[in-house]
Hints:
By secondary structure, this protein is an alpha/beta fold.
Amino acid sequence: MDIRLIEQKQLVERYLLGRLTPPEAKFFERMVRDSPELAERIGLPEALRRTMRLLDETGTEWREQPPRFWRQPWLVAGLAAALLAAIGIAVALWAGKRDAAASYLQLKGEAERGLLVAPTRSALLDLHPARPSESAPSYLIGTRTAPTLADLRVDVSYVHASLFKVVIKRDDGTYWARLDNQLRDSNGSLRLAFNTAAFAAGTYEVEIEAVDLHGNVVPAGRLRLRIDRG
Length: 230
């Protein structure tokens, strides 16, 4: 290409300022690359220096700038890791919430059914309490793992009374039940029935008191009931 034509069209200045069309810029670059001596003749190095000085004077940054921090590879990797961690936390929270909901429904169902477990068998037991001055006998009436409907016949035929009060407490002194106005049957026995699931495993003291016509109570007998864990 003629140098005069290059000067007339101000190809060097227009190229340096980015005002050439893409086809023109590619043609100019190919021309300079194929004819290095042409770059000297048209004053390309000097034009480049003038352009740099001009950019410096106007405060336009032409030097290569470090990438913005948000374009750093480590930032992208960190954001990806944070996203994965957030997803993991969300999944864990969802799973925990699902498990909590399942536990709540299970507890609600148990509450609606009641805390007592239905007996798996029944037993009829004849119990003979000790007199006030005697050592109390112990009777096993069931277990926790296999609850029993224990039908107890407590012999009080030796007592000249028809009305009784029964107090049941654990061997640590904790009261479990008090049964007032218990009448003995024609065989002289008190009839008591318990679901052993209502008892915690352990030993229970049973105190039997006779009630006279004036409401006064007199000790009539004692015995011990035992619930095993099974």
